[in-house]
Design a protein that fits this description.
With about 220 residues, this protein is α/β, with parallel strands linked by helices. The chain contains 4 helices and 8 strands.
């Protein structure tokens, strides 16, 4: 009888363990976001000014922007605290995604190269070659109120002209752009930041033309 009771207790213990395991929630994988497809190309506008090749190296960033977290601020309560969505992530660190998006947008109007491609081009052509270095200083979903938010991107941009004697500084500018979030969650923040990045690309493109025209 003792042996039977022991076996019954063991079976009951196994059943209880199985039942507990079945009700434990499985780990939830974070939802991954990128910036999606580019907006459709509008009818081409002939812009006056010189055409030149542009080199866009990796974008510098520091702190929380080096990771893949989607960051947000509650400006209405504490705009000095940077928070991260727990169940949402970028598919790559923001500097990589922003650089990819800017390259795609800027490449619609001019050749855009990597650093390793620039040396051969400089040897093969006498055309001016510009280098655009950028530092990503802010890239966050900012809530002005619980029902109102925007995506904010802030870039420090510096343009150099590649000359025989080395790189010549020709312009520097801080760019801050924002986009309106359609929803007050991570998905809305991603769309707002994408809109802001596209607006920053348009701003940079116009500025580059001004810089190029100012060169002798």
């Amino acid at each position: 009888m003792t042996r039977i009771l022991s076996r019954a207790a063991a079976v009951l213990s196994l059943l209880l363990l199985a039942a507990c395991a079945s009700i434990v929630d499985k780990p939830v994988r974070p939802t991954l976001f990128d910036m999606g497809p580019l907006p459709p190309i509008s009818p081409p506008i002939e812009r006056p000014g010189p055409r030149f090749a542009l080199v866009v190296p990796e974008i510098d960033a520091a702190g929380a922007l080096e990771g893949s977290a989607i960051l947000y601020r509650l400006a209405y309560s504490d705009d000095h605290q940077l928070r991260a969505y727990s169940q949402s992530r970028w598919s790559a660190p923001p500097p990589q995604l922003v650089r990819q998006r800017l390259r795609q947008q800027l490449g619609r109007e001019r050749p855009v190269l990597n650093l390793d491609e620039s040396a051969s081009l400089a040897r093969e052509t006498a055309q001016p070659l510009y280098l655009l270095r950028m530092e990503l200083e802010e890239f966050a979903h900012v809530f002005d109120a619980p029902d109102s938010s925007r995506g904010v991107i802030r870039l420090r941009t510096t343009v150099f002209l590649n000359t025989i004697g080395g790189e010549k500084l020709v312009g520097q500018r801080s760019i801050a752009v924002q986009g309106v979030a359609p929803t007050q969650d991570a998905s809305g923040g991603v769309r707002a930041l994408t809109e802001a990045t596209d607006a920053a690309a348009a701003d940079i493109s116009q500025w580059l033309l001004q810089v190029a025209r100012s060169q002798p």
